[in-house]
Write a structure and sequence with these properties.
disordered N terminus, two-stranded antiparallel sheet, 15 helices, 2% strand, 375 residues, mainly alpha, single chain, 33% helix, Cytochrome Bc1 Complex, Chain D, domain 2
Length: 375
């Protein structure tokens, strides 16, 4: 049966794109979209490679000045995000986006075809993304040749490289180990996956697939269509009031050759990739798995809780952006909202995926002599 499409609110379209909630329509059928389902099992990387990758993940020496590690912005105790509205960045800069979780990252390429990152600009493979984030000036600011040399100075990495890959350490081998570790960050033991949801959560799933219409953007086992949407999320003005964050934003626009760089007073989102002005303010639909532990929400961290997210879209989203002109209220009752919240929470494990942080000994000073302050 072919159902004639109707105009949906993009706040309906995406209670969705930046945290899942969705469209009100009696014509919505869950069967029109990839079905919600548990994540499929995947082969686990070799334990020794994972251990090497974990050590690298917590090692600040893989940043340019040895000051930050991957775990700085992807804290295991924060759902592998960082719990901040806007994330930190390489020392001397501050970032203009909320740090996304790394949990279930390895599944993204199986169910979506856009790149990684809020605007989908990063890489075609997880290895590409790791390299990009390591070398990005405002993130880790690492030179792969220096990363190579630092690993050669650490006898633990020397032994790990030989055991896992053969031969001496290289930046390529280190990236492969990091990917192996990230691939183990899997959440697939949630009440939804195990079929142990509460009655309220089951009612919430029906809303998710029907009246609320979240499934139009959050579908399939990964709970994301992988496409960019503009849900009218208000700008986080700290990006423009804070001169350091603003300079970081302008730097990234310049790096990616965004037209009219000096004119923008908003996050251009997917326009950075497409160069199509209709894509200004669009961001790629995130997965909803483990979102109970990854507040605050949206690409710029402007919504502090899931209750705020549900209220935001139920009220028709933001109204300071003329581009998402199909936004409209959802009409959810208080009970509807509670049931929808119960379902969203059932997409997270009862116990968060976390691990003990590793303290990596550094037996040398990564700061060059010429940068040392002289008395």
């Amino acid at each position: 049966m072919v159902i004639k499409p109707r105009v949906f609110s993009l706040a309906q379209i995406c209670l969705t794109a930046l945290l899942g909630l969705s469209f009100t329509s009696q014509s919505i059928l869950a069967g029109e979209y990839p079905a919600l389902a548990p994540l499929p099992a995947k082969k686990t990387p070799a334990a020794s490679k994972v251990e090497m990758g974990k050590r690298l993940f917590f090692d600040a020496r893989i940043s340019g000045d040895g000051a930050i590690s991957c775990a700085t912005c992807h804290d295991p105790n924060m759902g592998f995000g960082d719990g901040r509205v806007l994330s930190e960045a390489y020392p001397g800069t501050d970032y203009f986006r909320n740090s996304p979780s790394l949990i279930n990252t390895q599944y993204k390429a199986d169910f979506t075809d856009t790149g990684w990152g809020w605007e989908g600009r990063l890489g075609s493979s997880l290895n590409d993304v790791v390299r990009d984030q390591l070398t990005e000036t405002t993130i880790m600011n690492m030179d792969m040749r220096i990363m190579h040399e630092r690993a050669k100075q650490d006898p633990v990495y020397v032994e790990m490289c030989e055991a896992n890959f053969g031969g001496e350490c290289s930046s390529g081998k280190m990236r492969k180990a990091l990917v192996a570790f990230i691939e183990t960050l899997v959440s697939n033991k949630t009440p939804f996956d195990s079929g142990t949801m509460s009655r309220a959560a089951k009612s919430g799933q029906k809303l998710f697939e029907g009246k609320a219409g979240c499934i139009q953007c959050h579908n399939g086992p990964y709970l994301s269509d992988g496409k960019p949407h503009n849900t009218g999320v208000p700008e986080n003005l700290d990006i423009f009031k804070d001169p350091v964050r603003h300079l970081t934003y302008r730097s990234v626009l310049h790096t990616y050759g965004v037209p009219n760089m000096a004119a923008w007073r908003r996050d251009v989102g997917y326009f950075m990739v497409s160069r199509d002005y209709k894509d200004v303010g669009k961001f790629v639909t995130p997965t909803l798995r483990e979102l109970k532990y990854t507040a605050p929400y949206m690409h710029n961290g402007t919504l502090a809780s899931l209750e705020e997210v549900i209220d935001y879209y139920n009220e028709g989203g933001g109204h300071d952006d003329v581009m998402p002109n199909e936004l409209a209220p959802l009409g959810l009752s208080q009970r509807d909202k509670k049931n929808l919240l119960a379902f969203l929470e059932a997409l997270s494990a009862d116990v968060p995926l976390a691990m003990e942080k590793m303290e990596i000994p550094q037996d040398y000073d990564p700061t060059p002599d010429w940068l040392e302050t002289k008395n």
